[in-house]
Amino acid sequence: MNRNTRATPCRVTCRRWFWALALVMVFLLHQDCWNWARVRPLVLGVLPVGLAYHAAYALGCSVLMALLVRFAWPQNLGETALPDRAEPTGSSAATNGPSTAP
Amino acid sequence: MIPAVIVFAYLAVVLYLGVFAFRRGRVSGEDYFLANRSLASVIFLLALFGTNMTAFSILGASGLAYHRGIGVFGMLASSSAFVIPLSFFFIGTRLWAFGKRFGHMTQVQFLRDRLECGHIGTAVFALTAAMLVPYVVIGVMGGGHTLEAISGGVVPYWAGGGLVALVVMSYVFFGGMRGTAWVNTFQTLLFLSFGSIAFLLIGRGVGGFDQVIERLASQPATASLLTRERISMAEFFSYAFIPLSSVMFPHVAIMCLTARRAEAFKLTVVFYPMCILLLWLPSVFLGVVAADQFPGLKPGESDDVILRLLRAHAGPVLAGVLGAAILACVMAADSQILALGTMFTQDVFAYYGGRERFGEKAQVWTGRAFVVGLTLVAYLAALRLKDKEGIFELAVRFAFTGYAALAPVMVAALYWRRATKWGALAATLWVALAMAGLWWLHERSAAFAPKPGEPPVPIFPALGNLFLRTPGGVTMFGYLPVVFLCGVSAALMAGVSLLTRPPRRETIEKYFPNRAEAD
User: Fold this and answer.
1) CB–CB of B117/B125 below 8 Å?
2) In the structure, what pLDDT confidence band is assigned to residue B442 with cuts at 50, 70 and 90?
3) CA B298 → CA A39, B278, B292, B305, distances in Å?
4) DSSP B475
5) CA angle B449, B452, B454 (to 5 degrees)
6) B121 contacts on A by Cβ (under 8 Å)
7) Is the CB of A90 inside 8 Å of chain B's CB atoms?
8) N or C: more exposed end of chain B, with fewer CB within 10 A?
9) B272: nearest Cα among B65, B53, B38
10) A97 and B353 in contact by Cβ < 8 A?
């Protein structure tokens, strides 16, 4: 069952704000000024802390993306909403030539 | 010579894969340019990643880390791990859905139809094509440098670049998108598999990475390489805007249209950050390690530090295999060449009546002829530009900044009903003029550009810090121009759209059916 079909407009709006806030937070975490001049501790004995932080950040991005895909995947992309076109490629206005220009 | 022989064998395999392995009987336009929109999840992820990773990802990044330290990873890679999957999530999926429904084969076709204007498509085509050509040149240059380094100079730069250009041109010519996608998949697997082996071998060869890091940390001259002290906070922040360019690159946008289903994007969105981590972390780390092993290299010389490490610490056979893996990344010019061919045939040849007059077969052959001509031009340019610019700087300053600044146009066209052609035209013209202005500023300040380690110099002292010249290029108040280009581009797109007549209702209903009903 499609989650969004049961959601009220208010819940949809709240959900969007939640994800927007989460994305802003993750972006801010990228600007880790506290690690700027630090070398130690050396994570695993070789990775300076600033490098280890951003390696972990990249892994965290994968987790965030998995959550986005699981809970916020766009609902209007499926083949029911956007069926395969019947006409061959090139028949749309986009490819019909300069006549579409104003 | 053994590594060079292995690399030649690799090129032969790539040629076979691209030309013959997945060839179909009759080649239609959609099959040649978009592989019939049939790529499944895993192939889509690997091909898209291989398409996006180029010479600069590995050679340029390690060369930059050699001079500026570990901060290069956060500046370029982890920001990409956040922004690029998001751009696939928000832009790629929607572009794919519209492309599948309305038959678009390029983003220009989408913009022309959505914004009800042929001119905007022509303007975007001209701008994006002009910015992609240098990127293709970099690919050929990377091939020349790599083969020269792997063979120890036996294969000269001109021959290496020519060979790579010839191989790429051949499989793009015959295999189209299907051949290119499979070659990219093979290349990505090769690099991700053998890159880790290279990392371990070099670590053993240098006596353990812990020893190297301790040596670097103990010397004042190199300790800052293990921090971000060689990168300003403004620059670090600015680079977060650069990955916005990713999905605006025509070859990536066109690759997005090749997915079989929307679900193919899910795997890509989730695993893309991990692929970036696997590729960039060793690349940046080895760049820093090279500063200990080969001190004193100049910016132009440091682009092949990984190859130097391989030659010094891996056996000849393994060095050849790993060299081939590196060449895999370098050879990403294939999808860019194909994208330019696709754009030319769809956005110029077909749009201006060529397809109707000469038929679909002529359209495919026009694309192929364009591929040959473009490869030749790129090769000649690569010969002429050798040793004039660092790979990384050349790519970032022009292509990345320009494409990133065009992202607001695409986002608005995809998501905002009120977006108009005038807003898009204003933003596109702004980007074109700003890029020309940046070029002029760069050339004007070249004579007094500071050397690495020296402070920035105001280009117009009367304007204070508005335009500063750094060793890497022009900045504005210390920030990269991409920040301001994106901001103004978004403001123009929004402001001019609101001030002009909205799109026709039919267009809104076509692209926003659910929301149009709600009005």
Assistant:
1) no
2) confident
3) 25, 27, 14, 11
4) E
5) 70
6) 94
7) yes
8) C
9) B53
10) yes
**A94/B112 CB distance under 8 A:** yes
Q: Which of A48, A64, A82 sits opposite B226 (nearest CB)?
A: A48
A15 shares contact with chain B (CB less than 8 Å): no
**Which residue in chain A has the smallest CA separation from B512?**
A76
CATH architecture of B2-20+30-518: Up-down Bundle (1.20)
* Binary contact (B93, A68; C-beta < 8 A): no
| Nearest partner of B248 among B384, B389, B484, B84, judged by Cα | B84
Neighbours of B187 (CB within 10 A): 28
Q: Give Cβ neighbours of residue B431 (< 8 Å, ≥ 6 apart).
A: B127, B402, B405, B406, B485, B489
Q: What is the mean pLDDT of residues B98-112?
A: 92
Which range has highest mean pLDDT (A83-92, B117-126, B433-442)?
B433-442
**Which residue in chain A has the smallest CA separation from B217?**
A39
Highest mean pLDDT among B326-340, B383-397, B439-453: B439-453
- Between positions 20 and 39 of A, the ones with CB within 8 A of B are 23, 26-27, 30-33, 35-39
The partner residues of B457 in beta bridges, in order of sequence, read: B469
- Residue pair B501/B420 in contact by the 8 Å Cβ criterion: yes
For residue A95, give the amino acid letter: T
Cβ proximity of B237 and B74 under 8 Å? no
Q: Is the dihedral of CA B267, B270, B274, B277 positive or negative?
A: positive
pTM listed for this prediction: 0.89
Q: Do B285 and A26 touch (CB under 8 A)?
A: no
Q: Quick: pLDDT tens for B24-82.
A: 655 677 888 898 898 999 999 999 998 887 666 667 788 889 999 999 999 999 999 99
**Token pair recorded at residue B184:** 């990219």
Highest mean pLDDT among B96-105, B122-131, B188-197: B96-105
Interface test with B, best of A39, A95, A99 (most B CBs within 10 A): A95
Neighbours of B432 (CB within 10 A): 19
The first and second tokens of residue B283, run together, are 């690349």
Cβ-Cβ pairs closer than 8 A, A with B, add up to 182
| Contact between B299 and B390 (Cβ < 8 Å) | yes
